Amino acid sequence: MELRHLRYFIAVAEERNFSRAAVRxxxxxxxxxQQIRRxxxxxxxxxxxxxxxxxVPTRAGEVLLKHARIVLESSAVAIAAAEAAQRGVVxxxxxxxxxxxxxxxxxxxxxxxxxxxxxxxxxxxxxxxADQIDALIEGHIDVGILRPPVMDTRVDMLxxxxxxxxxALPADxxxxxxxxxxLADVSNQRLVSYPYGHLTGFRERTDAAFVxxxxxxxxxxxxxxxxxxxxxxxxxxxxxxxxxxARVLRMEGLRFVPLSGSGLVAETWLGWRKQNSIVQLxxxxxxxxxxxxRP
Length: 295
Description:
Layout: H1 3-15, H2 18-25, H3 29-43, E1 48-51, E2 54-57, H4 59-87, E3 91-97, H5 105-116, E4 120-126, H6 129-138, E5 143-146, E6 155-170, H7 183-186, E7 190-193, H8 202-212, E8 218-222, H9 226-234, E9 240-243, E10 254-258, E11 265-273, H10 279-293
Helix pairs in contact: 1-2, 1-4, 5-10
Domain HTH lysR-type: 1-58
Keywords: DNA-binding, Transcription, Transcription regulation
Family: Belongs to the LysR transcriptional regulatory family.
């Protein structure tokens, strides 16, 4: 039994006449009668009582009519849902992000995407950058918000933000009143930084900036999360050189001062697997691009 057989049956049952049903279906009457006879043979019982004036559904026909209408309505809903998914207006998108993106670029992206595609269910997962790359390749997430470098050629990238570094220092530190600080200003201070080998490469890049300036710095503490670094700074334990977006962290006893002359910048990128062709991903990338292009 095919959906078209149900459509034929419903038309005949509602019109109570093969000729009127054929006109309604825009087909010839003999083929319609043949299709109904074939349906009755396949089912093994009659669906209509034939009379000189037309047809009347049998008891079995009345039951089938009720359920046939439900089947056709459900199939129409299913097709509409599938078409909507194909257009990317419904469905699911899984986004991973590194921790500090949660209070910088992620809220803007989610707000813009939900406004553009309210029917898409969005799942967000906090995930360290190294795990994001693996999850993208394995298909566990659709898109990641991460820091470069990303060396895997199976991942496409779009730069979202580019920001300078600033100095985080205790609010009561003597340097906290300055409008700007240089690498030389912080070189003889106790520092807290990311560990060597952290995927962002911030520690290596910061040390390289000190070396290029002919300065030796002393890093006493290491931490992998920006809020931990800033918490140590706020406690008075040390100073830190961090991306400017860390300024959104409101901690008592913490101050940020612009860093000049270092050449250090931090970038945030969007990454996705090249072979991921779902429409929801494309629309998300389009939304991200629109935010970048917005003046």
